[in-house]
Amino acid sequence: MAAALSAVAAALVVVLAAPEAVLRWQADAIAGTGELRTMTLADGSHISLSPGSAVSIDYSSAERRIGLLRGQAWFDVQDDPRPFRVTARNVETTDIGTAFEVGLTDGATRVAVGHGIVRVDDARTGRTISERLVAGQNVSVDPAGKALRGTAPPELIGAWRDGRLAVQDRSVSEVVDALRPWHRGIILVRPGALAGRRVTGIYDLQDTAGAMGALTKAHGGRVTQITPWLLILSDG
After folding, report:
1. What is residue 211's three-state secondary structure?
2. Which helix (H) or strand (E) holds 199?
3. Helix, coil or strand: residue 230
4. What CA–CA distances, in Å, run from 183 to 5, 72, 92, 162, 178?
5. Torsion angle of alpha carbons 215, 103, 93, 57, nearest 10°?
C-alpha cells in the first residue's frame, strides 16, 4: 500500500510539474511570484511583466514577435520598420507606435492601450477584431473569438507597474485571480454570492491582504487568515 501511494504521489508531481516545465522551455523570460520584471529588447523597446508572467521573444529581419505565454505584460514599443506583434492564445496585436498591455485570464485575452494605436486580429482566421484601438480603449476576446469592448482612463491602464490594480466592473473572483500572483501564499474563495459580486476600484498590490480585506468588506464578506500563507474569502 505504501509503495502504491508513493507511486501515485510521484505521478501527481509529474502531472503538476509538466506544464510548468514546458512553459519554462518555451519562455525567454519569466517573472516570479511577487516579482515585477522589466526588460529592454534589442531594438530599445521595453517589456514589463507582472508576477508569474512569461513571454517568448522572436526577432527577425522581417518582424518583431512576442508570445505572451502566461499572465500580463506591458509593451512600450520603439519605432522600427519591422512590425511589432504580440500573440496571446488566438489573439494577435500589432503595434502602430504605442504603449499597450496584453493579459491572459482563464476566460479571455485582454488588450488595452495606454497611448497610440494598435490593431487586434484573430490569429486563427485573420479576421480583424479591432482595426483601431486607441488610448483608453480595451477589448476582451473569449476563446470563441467573441469580442467585448470597453474604455478606462488611460492613466489607469498598466497601473500594476506602479503597484496598483485598477479594476472596472469585474467580479470579486476575477479580482482575486489578478491578486494571486502578487501574494506569496494561497488565496481561496468559498462558493457563495461574494465571488460573483461586481466591483470597481483601485487596490494596493504591495498589500494583498489589505486589498482583499477592502474588497470583501465593501460587499459584506470577510477574510479569514489561517496561516500567514493561507487566506480564505467568504460571505459574511
Report:
1. helix
2. strand 198-204
3. strand
4. 32, 16, 30, 16, 10
5. 150
Average pLDDT per consecutive 10 residues, the chain (236 residues; last block may be shorter): 46 54 86 93 95 96 96 95 95 91 89 95 91 93 90 91 89 88 89 87 90 85 84 86
Listed residue (172, 174, 168, 160) closest to 206, CA to CA: 160
Containing H/E element for 213? helix 208-217
Counts for the chain of helices (H) and strands (E), in that order: 4, 19
CA neighbor of 119 nearest in space, from 140, 95, 139, 88: 95
Q: How many CB atoms lie within 10 A of CB 165?
A: 21
pLDDT of the residue at 20: 80
SS3 label, residue 61: coil
**Would you state the pLDDT for residue 13?**
42
Question: In whole angstroms, what is the distance from residue 176 CA to residue 17 CA?
Answer: 23
Angle between helices 172-179 and 208-217 (to 10 degrees): 170
pLDDT for the residue numbered 11: 42
- Cα gap 150→147, rounded to integer Å: 10
